[in-house]
Amino acid sequence: MGTLEHLCREHPEGDLLFEEGDVGKKMFVIQSGQVQIFRTVGKDRIVLAHLGPGEFFGEMAILEGLPRSASALVVEPTKLIEVDSRMFEEMISENAEIAIRIMRKLAGRVRELDLRLQNLLSEGGVGRAIEVLRQMAAKGSPESGGRVRLAASAVHIAITAQCNLSPAEVEPVLEQLRRSGCIRTEGIEIVVADEVHLERFAVYLDLKRKFEPAQSELSDTARRRMDRLIRALELEEDDLHFNRTVLAEQYQRYLDLKGDFEALPAAGPGTPSDAP
Protein backbone atom coordinates (compact mmCIF):
# COMPACT_ATOMS: atom_id res chain seq x y z
CA MET A 1 0.00 0.00 0.00
CA GLY A 2 3.05 2.27 -0.04
CA THR A 3 2.08 5.58 1.56
CA LEU A 4 -0.52 3.84 3.71
CA GLU A 5 2.01 1.65 5.53
CA HIS A 6 1.99 4.02 8.51
CA LEU A 7 -1.71 3.19 8.94
CA CYS A 8 -1.07 -0.55 9.30
CA ARG A 9 -1.76 -2.29 12.59
CA GLU A 10 -1.22 -5.93 13.53
CA HIS A 11 -3.96 -7.72 15.48
CA PRO A 12 -3.73 -11.09 17.24
CA GLU A 13 -6.25 -13.89 16.88
CA GLY A 14 -9.29 -13.26 19.07
CA ASP A 15 -9.04 -9.46 18.95
CA LEU A 16 -12.54 -7.91 18.87
CA LEU A 17 -12.16 -4.88 16.59
CA PHE A 18 -15.59 -3.45 17.35
CA GLU A 19 -19.02 -4.54 18.53
CA GLU A 20 -22.50 -3.97 17.18
CA GLY A 21 -23.71 -0.60 18.44
CA ASP A 22 -20.24 0.96 18.78
CA VAL A 23 -19.61 4.38 17.28
CA GLY A 24 -17.84 3.92 13.93
CA LYS A 25 -14.68 5.99 13.66
CA LYS A 26 -12.61 3.88 11.24
CA MET A 27 -12.88 1.56 8.27
CA PHE A 28 -10.46 -1.32 7.75
CA VAL A 29 -8.66 -2.90 4.78
CA ILE A 30 -7.21 -6.38 5.30
CA GLN A 31 -3.58 -6.75 4.20
CA SER A 32 -3.22 -10.28 5.55
CA GLY A 33 -5.18 -12.61 7.81
CA GLN A 34 -8.91 -13.07 8.26
CA VAL A 35 -11.78 -11.25 9.99
CA GLN A 36 -15.22 -12.58 10.88
CA ILE A 37 -18.22 -10.25 10.69
CA PHE A 38 -21.14 -11.36 12.86
CA ARG A 39 -24.28 -10.29 14.69
CA THR A 40 -25.55 -11.57 18.01
CA VAL A 41 -29.22 -12.52 18.28
CA GLY A 42 -30.08 -13.59 21.81
CA LYS A 43 -27.43 -16.15 22.70
CA ASP A 44 -26.72 -17.03 19.08
CA ARG A 45 -23.89 -15.68 16.93
CA ILE A 46 -24.91 -15.31 13.28
CA VAL A 47 -21.87 -15.14 10.99
CA LEU A 48 -22.43 -12.69 8.14
CA ALA A 49 -19.08 -12.99 6.39
CA HIS A 50 -15.48 -14.17 6.54
CA LEU A 51 -13.21 -11.56 4.96
CA GLY A 52 -9.63 -12.03 3.77
CA PRO A 53 -6.77 -10.08 2.14
CA GLY A 54 -7.92 -7.23 -0.10
CA GLU A 55 -11.37 -7.04 1.52
CA PHE A 56 -12.56 -3.99 3.46
CA PHE A 57 -15.21 -3.45 6.12
CA GLY A 58 -16.57 -0.86 8.53
CA GLU A 59 -17.10 1.75 5.83
CA MET A 60 -20.86 2.08 6.29
CA ALA A 61 -20.59 3.41 9.85
CA ILE A 62 -18.25 6.25 8.87
CA LEU A 63 -20.25 7.00 5.70
CA GLU A 64 -23.55 7.26 7.57
CA GLY A 65 -22.29 8.44 10.95
CA LEU A 66 -24.36 5.68 12.59
CA PRO A 67 -23.43 2.97 15.14
CA ARG A 68 -21.88 -0.27 13.91
CA SER A 69 -24.49 -2.69 12.55
CA ALA A 70 -22.36 -5.79 13.31
CA SER A 71 -19.28 -6.94 15.21
CA ALA A 72 -15.83 -7.76 13.80
CA LEU A 73 -13.54 -10.46 15.22
CA VAL A 74 -9.98 -11.32 14.17
CA VAL A 75 -9.86 -15.10 13.62
CA GLU A 76 -6.13 -15.41 12.82
CA PRO A 77 -3.15 -13.02 13.12
CA THR A 78 -4.14 -10.15 10.86
CA LYS A 79 -2.62 -6.93 9.50
CA LEU A 80 -5.11 -4.13 8.87
CA ILE A 81 -4.92 -0.70 7.28
CA GLU A 82 -7.08 1.53 9.49
CA VAL A 83 -8.55 4.63 7.85
CA ASP A 84 -10.52 7.35 9.66
CA SER A 85 -13.42 9.28 8.12
CA ARG A 86 -11.33 12.29 7.07
CA MET A 87 -8.78 10.21 5.20
CA PHE A 88 -11.54 8.05 3.70
CA GLU A 89 -13.22 11.12 2.23
CA GLU A 90 -9.90 12.34 0.84
CA MET A 91 -9.21 8.96 -0.76
CA ILE A 92 -12.65 8.93 -2.41
CA SER A 93 -12.45 12.50 -3.69
CA GLU A 94 -8.88 12.19 -5.02
CA ASN A 95 -9.00 8.69 -6.53
CA ALA A 96 -11.95 7.66 -8.70
CA GLU A 97 -10.66 4.08 -8.96
CA ILE A 98 -10.96 3.62 -5.20
CA ALA A 99 -14.51 4.97 -5.29
CA ILE A 100 -15.47 2.59 -8.12
CA ARG A 101 -13.96 -0.42 -6.32
CA ILE A 102 -15.91 0.41 -3.17
CA MET A 103 -19.14 0.86 -5.15
CA ARG A 104 -18.64 -2.53 -6.83
CA LYS A 105 -17.96 -4.21 -3.51
CA LEU A 106 -21.05 -2.65 -1.92
CA ALA A 107 -23.15 -3.72 -4.90
CA GLY A 108 -21.87 -7.28 -4.50
CA ARG A 109 -22.83 -7.27 -0.83
CA VAL A 110 -26.32 -6.04 -1.68
CA ARG A 111 -26.68 -8.88 -4.21
CA GLU A 112 -25.54 -11.42 -1.62
CA LEU A 113 -28.01 -10.11 0.96
CA ASP A 114 -30.75 -10.23 -1.67
CA LEU A 115 -29.84 -13.83 -2.48
CA ARG A 116 -30.00 -14.80 1.19
CA LEU A 117 -33.37 -13.08 1.51
CA GLN A 118 -34.64 -14.99 -1.53
CA ASN A 119 -33.47 -18.24 0.08
CA LEU A 120 -35.23 -17.40 3.33
CA LEU A 121 -38.46 -16.49 1.52
CA SER A 122 -38.38 -19.37 -0.98
CA GLU A 123 -41.18 -21.91 -0.89
CA GLY A 124 -38.75 -24.81 -0.95
CA GLY A 125 -36.90 -25.75 2.21
CA VAL A 126 -33.45 -26.24 0.64
CA GLY A 127 -32.62 -22.54 0.29
CA ARG A 128 -33.74 -21.84 3.84
CA ALA A 129 -31.81 -24.87 5.08
CA ILE A 130 -28.59 -23.43 3.61
CA GLU A 131 -29.08 -20.26 5.66
CA VAL A 132 -29.66 -22.40 8.77
CA LEU A 133 -26.40 -24.27 8.11
CA ARG A 134 -24.56 -20.96 7.72
CA GLN A 135 -25.85 -19.78 11.08
CA MET A 136 -25.00 -23.05 12.82
CA ALA A 137 -21.50 -23.23 11.33
CA ALA A 138 -20.22 -20.64 13.83
CA LYS A 139 -20.91 -23.11 16.67
CA GLY A 140 -19.54 -26.23 14.98
CA SER A 141 -16.16 -27.90 15.18
CA PRO A 142 -13.89 -26.56 12.40
CA GLU A 143 -12.18 -29.04 10.08
CA SER A 144 -9.73 -28.74 7.20
CA GLY A 145 -10.83 -26.98 4.03
CA GLY A 146 -13.26 -24.69 5.85
CA ARG A 147 -15.67 -27.52 6.68
CA VAL A 148 -17.54 -27.71 9.98
CA ARG A 149 -18.80 -30.69 11.99
CA LEU A 150 -22.21 -30.47 13.72
CA ALA A 151 -24.43 -32.80 15.70
CA ALA A 152 -26.93 -34.34 13.27
CA SER A 153 -29.77 -34.09 15.80
CA ALA A 154 -29.18 -30.34 16.22
CA VAL A 155 -29.23 -29.87 12.44
CA HIS A 156 -32.50 -31.82 12.13
CA ILE A 157 -34.16 -29.80 14.90
CA ALA A 158 -32.94 -26.44 13.57
CA ILE A 159 -34.03 -27.09 9.98
CA THR A 160 -37.41 -28.44 11.14
CA ALA A 161 -38.08 -25.40 13.32
CA GLN A 162 -36.56 -22.58 11.27
CA CYS A 163 -37.64 -23.79 7.83
CA ASN A 164 -41.20 -24.49 8.97
CA LEU A 165 -41.01 -28.12 7.83
CA SER A 166 -42.55 -31.24 9.27
CA PRO A 167 -40.14 -34.02 10.39
CA ALA A 168 -41.16 -36.02 7.30
CA GLU A 169 -40.20 -33.10 5.02
CA VAL A 170 -36.73 -32.63 6.50
CA GLU A 171 -35.15 -35.81 5.14
CA PRO A 172 -35.75 -34.95 1.43
CA VAL A 173 -34.18 -31.56 2.08
CA LEU A 174 -31.15 -33.18 3.71
CA GLU A 175 -30.90 -35.66 0.86
CA GLN A 176 -30.76 -32.83 -1.68
CA LEU A 177 -28.06 -31.14 0.40
CA ARG A 178 -26.11 -34.42 0.40
CA ARG A 179 -26.43 -34.82 -3.38
CA SER A 180 -25.23 -31.25 -3.88
CA GLY A 181 -22.17 -31.86 -1.72
CA CYS A 182 -23.28 -29.34 0.92
CA ILE A 183 -23.32 -31.90 3.74
CA ARG A 184 -22.13 -35.40 4.54
CA THR A 185 -23.67 -37.55 7.27
CA GLU A 186 -21.24 -39.48 9.49
CA GLY A 187 -23.13 -41.45 12.13
CA ILE A 188 -24.56 -38.98 14.63
CA GLU A 189 -22.76 -36.03 13.05
CA ILE A 190 -23.04 -33.95 9.89
CA VAL A 191 -20.07 -32.37 8.11
CA VAL A 192 -20.98 -29.09 6.40
CA ALA A 193 -19.13 -27.89 3.29
CA ASP A 194 -17.10 -24.68 3.25
CA GLU A 195 -18.77 -21.30 2.75
CA VAL A 196 -17.70 -21.04 -0.90
CA HIS A 197 -19.48 -24.30 -1.78
CA LEU A 198 -22.63 -23.28 0.12
CA GLU A 199 -22.62 -19.93 -1.66
CA ARG A 200 -22.24 -21.56 -5.10
CA PHE A 201 -25.16 -23.88 -4.41
CA ALA A 202 -27.27 -20.94 -3.15
CA VAL A 203 -26.53 -19.07 -6.39
CA TYR A 204 -27.44 -22.19 -8.37
CA LEU A 205 -30.81 -22.42 -6.59
CA ASP A 206 -31.49 -18.74 -7.25
CA LEU A 207 -30.68 -19.06 -10.96
CA LYS A 208 -32.71 -22.27 -11.17
CA ARG A 209 -35.75 -20.41 -9.84
CA LYS A 210 -35.16 -17.84 -12.57
CA PHE A 211 -34.54 -20.12 -15.55
CA GLU A 212 -36.51 -23.23 -14.57
CA PRO A 213 -39.58 -22.05 -12.62
CA ALA A 214 -41.93 -24.62 -11.14
CA GLN A 215 -45.08 -25.46 -13.10
CA SER A 216 -47.24 -23.59 -10.57
CA GLU A 217 -45.25 -20.43 -11.35
CA LEU A 218 -45.54 -20.60 -15.13
CA SER A 219 -48.52 -18.28 -15.44
CA ASP A 220 -46.86 -15.58 -13.32
CA THR A 221 -43.62 -16.13 -15.20
CA ALA A 222 -45.35 -15.70 -18.55
CA ARG A 223 -46.87 -12.44 -17.37
CA ARG A 224 -43.50 -11.17 -16.12
CA ARG A 225 -41.90 -12.07 -19.46
CA MET A 226 -44.58 -10.11 -21.29
CA ASP A 227 -43.97 -7.12 -19.00
CA ARG A 228 -40.24 -7.35 -19.70
CA LEU A 229 -40.92 -7.51 -23.44
CA ILE A 230 -43.09 -4.40 -23.29
CA ARG A 231 -40.43 -2.55 -21.33
CA ALA A 232 -37.76 -3.76 -23.75
CA LEU A 233 -39.59 -2.12 -26.65
CA GLU A 234 -39.02 1.22 -24.94
CA LEU A 235 -35.27 0.68 -24.39
CA GLU A 236 -32.44 2.14 -26.42
CA GLU A 237 -30.39 -0.25 -28.57
CA ASP A 238 -27.39 -0.02 -26.19
CA ASP A 239 -29.63 -0.94 -23.24
CA LEU A 240 -31.08 -3.90 -25.12
CA HIS A 241 -27.58 -5.16 -25.98
CA PHE A 242 -26.48 -4.77 -22.34
CA ASN A 243 -29.55 -6.63 -21.01
CA ARG A 244 -29.09 -9.47 -23.50
CA THR A 245 -25.43 -9.77 -22.55
CA VAL A 246 -26.16 -9.87 -18.81
CA LEU A 247 -28.94 -12.42 -19.28
CA ALA A 248 -26.70 -14.60 -21.43
CA GLU A 249 -23.93 -14.47 -18.82
CA GLN A 250 -26.36 -15.38 -16.05
CA TYR A 251 -27.75 -18.29 -18.04
CA GLN A 252 -24.26 -19.57 -18.85
CA ARG A 253 -23.32 -19.43 -15.18
CA TYR A 254 -26.50 -21.34 -14.36
CA LEU A 255 -25.61 -24.05 -16.88
CA ASP A 256 -22.08 -24.29 -15.45
CA LEU A 257 -23.35 -24.63 -11.89
CA LYS A 258 -26.06 -27.06 -12.95
CA GLY A 259 -23.45 -29.25 -14.60
CA ASP A 260 -21.28 -29.14 -11.47
CA PHE A 261 -24.01 -29.98 -8.98
CA GLU A 262 -25.84 -32.58 -11.06
CA ALA A 263 -22.52 -34.35 -11.65
CA LEU A 264 -21.66 -34.49 -7.95
CA PRO A 265 -21.86 -37.85 -6.18
CA ALA A 266 -23.60 -37.92 -2.81
CA ALA A 267 -20.26 -38.64 -1.13
CA GLY A 268 -19.79 -35.54 0.94
CA PRO A 269 -19.44 -31.79 1.26
CA GLY A 270 -17.38 -29.83 -1.20
CA THR A 271 -16.42 -30.65 -4.75
CA PRO A 272 -15.22 -34.22 -5.50
CA SER A 273 -11.61 -33.01 -5.56
CA ASP A 274 -11.71 -31.60 -2.04
CA ALA A 275 -14.11 -34.00 -0.35
CA PRO A 276 -12.58 -35.34 2.88
Give a concise summary.
The chain has helices at 59-64, 85-94, 96-121, 125-137, 152-162, 167-179, 195-211, 218-232, 237-263; strands spanning 8-11, 16-18, 26-41, 44-51, 56-57, 71-84, 141-142, 148-151, 183-186, 189-192.
Mean pLDDT: 77
Structural category is: alpha+beta
Number of strands: 10
Weakly predicted, low-confidence segments: 271-276
| Helical fraction | 40-55%
3D shape: globular
Question: How much β-strand is present in the residues?
Answer: 15-25%
Per DSSP, the total helix count is 9
Distance between the termini: 38 Å
Q: Can you write the helix and strand succession as a string?
A: EEEEEHEHHHEEHHEEHHH
The largest β sheet comes out as: 6 strands, antiparallel
Question: How large, in whole angstroms, is the Cα Rg?
Answer: 21 Å
Assembly annotation:
single chain
Features:
single chain, about 280 residues, alpha+beta, 6-stranded antiparallel beta sheet, 4-stranded antiparallel beta sheet, 9 helices, 10 strands, about 50% helix, globular, disordered C terminus
Structural overview:
The structure is a single chain. The chain has nine helices and ten strands. The protein has 276 residues and is of the alpha+beta class. Strands 1, 2, 3, 4, 5 and 6 form a six-stranded antiparallel beta sheet that branches. A four-stranded antiparallel beta sheet has the order 7-8-10-9. Strand 3 and strand 4 (44-51) form a beta hairpin.
